[in-house]
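Re: the multi-chain job from yesterday

Posting the exact lines I submitted so nobody has to dig through the queue logs.
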Amino acid sequence: MLDIKAIGKSFGGLVALKDVHFSVQERTISALIGPNGAGKTTLLNIISGIFPPDTGDILFLGTSISALPSTKIARAGISRTFQQVELFGDMTALENVMVGRYPKTRAGFMSSGLRLPYVLREERQIRNLSLEILDYIGLSSRKDELSSSLPLGEQRILEIGRALATEPNLLLLDEPAAGLNIKETRTLGEMISRIRDDKKITILLVEHDMDLVMRISNRITVLNFGEVIAKGSPSEVQHNQAVIAAYLGTEEE
Amino acid sequence: MGYAGQVSLGQAGFYGIGAYVSAVLSQQYGFPVMMSALSAMIVAAFAAVLLAVPSLRLKGHYLAVATLSFGEIINIILNEWGPGGPSGFGDIPHFDILGLTFDSTKSYFYLVWSCVALVLLFSFNLINSRAGRALRALHGSELASRAMGLDVTALKIKVFILSAVYASLAGSLYAHYVTFISPGSFTLFYSILVLMMAVIGGITNLWGAVIGAVLITILPELLRSFEEFDVLVYGLVLTLSLMFFRKGLVPLLIERINKLRSPEIAGH
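And the result, structure tokens for all chains:
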């Protein structure tokens, strides 16, 4: 469903990505791994339209999205979370999820200010659906708390909930386990697998926690210094000499 | 301004448009006052679009400076081309709605507060809706807002138009109350007063704007004895409030009340 074709990106003199090719199959969990500075987050930012690539193209469900701004990409069905949590801190957990319904709803300024009947109906739908999502991700009891007051683990999960509210086809997760303890990471892993299975959402994640990546991923792509050095199933990647040399070698000792 | 996190220093421009357009239409062209005020709101909305499209690409201080320049341009236009030039003009008809004339201070009091109530009601409805949530989200994180599919530029333009229409209504109400207006009432100083009202009351709370407006309106009465030094006192009040209650009075009070109610969560 997602085809990354010959993507290249430089920042000033620094080459962040060089001729990156890979694809993500529908209803799988794909992981993008690699040492720090390998270009993983840069690639996620390009896919989600935060900045365009210098070269190459990205096809999503058969159409090119590499020139679209992030608002349009979100509306095309790609949602994401952020490595540095980007919740709306002054809003409650529930309101954060409700914002995620924005692209799928239509009440405007005038009709909202005048509380037209269809606005109230739509508002109830937004609220109920968002409550369901909070329930799904296990944060119902936090619904009225400010998102900035939640512990980091719950903030990361809330970001996933907010992304789910947009009903994406593809969900990009940028280091969802960063800063979480072992137990929280396990719960997160189960949730990510559940999202793929129940909601039929394809997931592409960038992650440093190898345990999590190996456990839940169907396919793994390894980046090193902006280039793809290996692709395959978790066991193939684990036994790939180039990967061990570049990265896992130090982890396995 | 508050909920969406945009700073405008050009509110005097829209306030001036509201006052002048409404006054001129009703006094010189014989429009009913209601119609004049509505026309002024439409003119202000157009002016807001013209200003917003280029300048909302700017952020923070640059946006503030662009809106400030707009306010100055409107002031110069009123000075040069407004009826009566710098000295303004009078004999503006009193506000009337379908034959009901508001010519006493008391009746005007009710009229203005009814308008405040309607504007507040509209604003509260807006804030607790899809569009209002989007505005608050924008304030929280523009990056995440875009990733959630929010049309950031369109939202900023719309909220800017809304603020212009509100300012225009205020201007019309003012013109038909005092029945004499001059460009001197629509200067940068007024824009700064509006900003002070919002900051002192609390920019993230609608009641904050109301409380701020009441305080800032009472302030000059209290400052009579300072005569022309009152501007210094304004500056001092703004500085102190930014130092000691940055979020504004109303959010501060809410925080205090919440703490009193649930001391165990207070440390959280």
